[in-house]
């Protein structure tokens, strides 16, 4: 039993674990550098030479720019109002003493426009501006952004050859709130790292046999030997192709995530079918069939999803005919009684007979309506 369950859990959880590992690697890898700089500090943009400029978080105290060459805007489809969201300005790489520099872009939120325009005027007038602190991430211009950038430089008198030599196709996307972005970068990296570790842990847990610890404890707490449970499991009735849910005479066995568990049938109090109809915009998109089982160990209940209503009814019929102490079926009255007066609920069946499984054939098979 244990080796069989171990293989089933490994097989059923392997795909999900691999997805977690891949997603974790992708998320953590993508945001690792951003999270690092968010925690330790952004790179000073003025210290970077042209060949060092790449996708990274930078900051700079901007004192010069050569004008706005592009606006980004968005349109509210409800009000039909168009609003500018960002401006693109041309700046130089390096500091004021750099001998190797290039033209580049900076994309700032629209709220920065007035200050940037003031710096533009001062640049062309030869007046020193108060430094404007900017922080953001270096990104590559897309084809449209790049075409506007080159057109602006041509209007400034540069030839195509000079433009190729003197510009970089990158821009700094300035953050309106670097602090909020820092939190996001660190959070996304942390989520990625968690997914990666959790995926590896799931595989290691199953491979090492830890996924069976709770099952062994369930069996011991129920007062059965592992050999008795093994025999019961092998003769249990399966209700899905993967064998993730099996009902024996002694216990009900199931797989929960990466753990194998078992419910002592003698502790089950109530079972019924729960059907959920899913709708999107009023249109039916599917139906989920669940069997709810409540026992003394877990009075809040277990939810077992099954493929269809027929399987759900098969489970309930088996419980009803083999375990006469279980109340099978649902009504609002039963729910109220279970929640408000548990002792009276147990008096319906649970406390009225021996908790020894019987063969279905010796029970009155007409008693499948679910009423106690």
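^ structure tokens above, recovered residues below v
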């Amino acid at each position: 039993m244990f080796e069989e369950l171990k293989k089933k859990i490994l097989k059923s959880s392997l795909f999900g674990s691999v997805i977690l590992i891949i997603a974790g690697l992708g998320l953590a890898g993508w945001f690792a550098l951003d999270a690092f700089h968010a925690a330790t500090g952004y790179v000073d943009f003025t210290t970077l030479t042209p060949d060092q400029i790449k996708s990274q978080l930078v900051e700079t105290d901007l004192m010069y720019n050569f004008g706005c060459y592009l606006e980004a805007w968005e349109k509210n489809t409800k009000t039909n109002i168009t609003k500018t969201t960002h401006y693109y300005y041309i700046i130089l790489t390096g500091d004021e003493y750099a001998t190797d520099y290039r033209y580049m872009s900076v994309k700032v939120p629209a709220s920065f426009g007035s200050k940037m325009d003031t710096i533009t005027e001062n640049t062309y007038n030869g007046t020193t501006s108060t430094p404007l602190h900017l922080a953001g991430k270096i990104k590559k211009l897309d084809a449209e952004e790049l075409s506007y950038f080159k057109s602006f430089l041509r209007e400034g008198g540069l030839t195509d050859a000079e433009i190729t030599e003197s510009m970089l196709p990158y821009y700094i996307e300035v953050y309106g709130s670097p602090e909020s972005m820092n939190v996001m970068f660190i959070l996304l990296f942390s989520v990625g790292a968690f997914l990666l570790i959790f995926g590896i842990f799931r595989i290691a847990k199953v491979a090492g046999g830890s996924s069976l610890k709770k099952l062994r404890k369930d069996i011991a707490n129920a007062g059965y030997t592992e050999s008795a449970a093994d025999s019961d499991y092998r003769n249990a009735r399966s209700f899905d192709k993967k064998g993730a849910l099996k009902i024996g005479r002694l216990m009900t066995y199931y797989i929960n995530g990466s753990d194998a568990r078992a419910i002592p049938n003698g502790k089950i109090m109530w079972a019924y079918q729960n059907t959920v109809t899913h709708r999107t915009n009023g249109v039916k998109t599917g139906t989920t069939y669940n069997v709810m089982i409540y026992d003394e160990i877990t009075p809040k209940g277990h939810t077992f999803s099954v493929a269809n209503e027929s399987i759900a009814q098969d489970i309930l019929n088996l419980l009803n005919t083999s375990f006469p102490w279980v109340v099978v079926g649902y009504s609002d009255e039963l729910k109220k009684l279970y929640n408000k007066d548990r002792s009276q609920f147990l008096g319906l069946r649970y406390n009225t007979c021996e908790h020894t499984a019987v063969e279905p054939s010796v029970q009155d098979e007409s008693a499948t309506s679910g009423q106690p």
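DSSP finds ten helices and 15 strands in the chain.
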